[in-house]
Amino acid sequence: MAMAYTYPRFEARVPPQLEAGTKSAAHAPLVIVGAGPIGLAAAIDCAQHGLPVVVLDDDDTVSVGSRGLCYAKRSLEVLERLGAGEPVLRKGVTWNTGRVFHRERQVYSFELLDEPGHEMPGMVNLQQYYLEDYLVERARQLPGIALCWNNKVEAIEPRGEGVLLRVQGPEGEYELSADWVIAADGARSPLRKMLGLDSEGKVFNDRFLIADVSMHAQFPAERWFWFDPPFHPGQSVLLHRQADDVWRIDFQLGADADPELERQPERVVPRIRAMLDQQGYHDMRFDLEWVSVYTFQCRRMRHFRSGRVLFAGDAAHQVSPFGARGANSGLQDVDNLAWKLALVMQGQAPESLLDSYDAERSAAADENIANSTHSTDFITPKTDAARRYREATLQLASRHAFAQALVNSGRLSTPTHLWQSSLNTPDSAHFDVLLRPGSPLPDAPVRHEGRDDWLLRRTGGDFCLLLFTDRAESMRDAVEALRELGSGPLVPRVLVLAEQPGRLDGVQVLHDAQHLAAERCDAQEGTVYLIRPDQHVAARWRRLDVAAVRAALARASGH
After folding, report:
1. Does this model's pTM top 0.90?
2. CB 126 within 8 A of CB 92
3. How do residues 490-520 score in pLDDT, each as one tens digit?
């Protein structure tokens, strides 16, 4: 069976600053190193904020194999804002149900999204090469991005208010200075090593086999995880469906497995055959598309900012693959970083605003590492006591809900709550604590100018004021508040959420027809929310107060 995907080859080029013949003094305001999903997403986000971007990558194609596979609801919302959500949803495999098995029986199942009224599903599976391809296509649509393939950074040197890069390009070596650099160059991050920085954490010795298997199996589009299955006794197995009838299968091998031996087809094929036979697919034909054996780490850099170099994605933090927290966390890094960097580079915020990127995403990395470490400890118990605990938990989980909560086959990626952020303005009135400052804004169905729409499609990219009211007088007050706040990137757009349809010059009126937006925001008549460009709550009030809004904007932008 032929592989459905054809790997592209991108044309090598040097940065446009060198193409213009200024090789002796080539300078770019912003350079991103690494054109994987995180680097490409960062380039798109920064360009959408008006920043010119040069992307350097030492390869000329997308990644090989499925790699980052599961994209969670929050990542899909970010990708939609970046203009790449639609092809991911169209091509990917949507799923919401996960099942956990112990030996031959199902222990329990779970739902990722258990309430209606959200545009994005709980999870979409898509091979990483497709995602990168879509991001490349989106980046090419934006005039401010120069994608420079076959350009390998050989050295990096901080210099005053900037950074100097020495790069091996398609036509030889050159130097490129930059005001800012985003390092999205992966888990091994050459830039991190060149700067003498290191990651801290734990290295796990267990080995796992990944196989991308092309076959026409009729397994449902769900996440299936087996503990100690009869076809792979004593170990664990994970099954996911991908696009193009490709199935991702992860086999736990143990710490003593020989990686070179285990990736050989004569070792891989019998494992897959045993799984299919046990599931009743005795005559199922299949082909191997990609095989890899890996170990993993739960580590992060002490700080994600080093002067004018900002680290994102796997370059900054690594986790186990259980829970789909790698790429999803990296996309949230981008979501957090781009608007802050744009405000700083455009002179609208102090450079210290970028310290909040380090603080907020370091806290998120700690949360992800803790979840990932606990999952790994449950999946691969290291002591007899840990194994007995897991066995008892799995046996109880088929009959008791309390034990199901203790089964850990990977706590799946969820949005990070930035409740401790210095950018938040504390509540000054009583609210339901659920959506306090630092929380990600939940989606809700709305209608705009008579058409169905979504709340998250109407926010993001800049600061927004959400005003919940049906009173024309309150809406006019909001328009007047805008005039008092002045103009510029730090003046929020006003969105009115009304239970009745209406129009008003100067603001967007969103019809909260199902009352879900108000319900999820614990909104009453006159309630106001200030939403950050990354769709997190910065502040909220029970009534509009221009002075309070101005102070919250200053705080949220690092002033």
Report:
1. yes
2. yes
3. 889 999 999 887 777 767 899 998 999 999 9
Give the span between the Cα atoms of 141 and 139, in whole angstroms: 5
Q: How far apart are CA 161 and CA 183, in angstroms?
A: 17
| Amino acid type, 144 | G
Residue type present at position 465: L
Q: Alpha helix locations (H) across 303-452?
A: 326-345, 353-379, 384-397, 401-404
- Residue-range domain boundaries for the chain: 16-91+123-199+298-371, 433-556
Q: Rounded to 10 degrees, what is the CA torsion of 514, 515, 519, 524? A: 180
* φ and ψ of 387, to 5 deg: -70, -40
Contact residues for 392 (Cβ-Cβ < 8 A; gap 6+) = none
Are 403 and 396 a contacting pair, CB within 8 Å? yes
Q: Bridge-partner residues for 225, per DSSP?
A: 100, 238
Instruction: Return the residue matching tokens 């200075």.
Output: 177
Contact 443, 456 (CB under 8 A): yes
The CATH code belonging to domain 16-91+123-199+298-371 is 3.50.50.60
Side by side, which strands form the sheet with 451-454?
451-454, 445-448, 508-511, 493-498, 464-468, 528-531, 537-541
Q: At what angle do helices 37-48 and 73-82 cross, to 10 degrees?
A: 50
Each residue's pLDDT tens digit, 165-214:
999 999 999 999 999 999 999 999 999 999 999 888 888 888 999 999 99
Q: How many CA atoms lie within 13 A of 25 on its CB side?
A: 0
Q: Worst-scoring range by mean pLDDT, 7-11, 374-378, 449-453?
A: 374-378
Compute the average pLDDT of residues 85-114. Answer: 95
- Our measurement of the distance from residue 219's CA atom to the centroid of its chain's CA atoms, rounded to an integer in Å, reads 27
Q: Is the backbone of residue 526 left (phi > 0), alpha (psi -120 to 50) or beta?
A: left
The domain 433-556 having CATH identifier 3.40.30.10: the answer here is yes
Is 518:496 a contact under the CB 8 Å cutoff? no
Other CB atoms within 10 Å distance of the CB of residue 170:
14
Instruction: State how far the Cα of 466 lies from the Cα of 532, in Å rounded to an integer.
Output: 11
User: Nearest-5° angle of CA 135, CA 136, CA 142?
Assistant: 90
DSSP class of residue 149? B
Cβ–Cβ < 8 Å for 528, 466: yes
Length of the chain: 559
Q: How far apart are the first and last CA of the chain?
A: 59
Structure tokens at 541: 């009030």
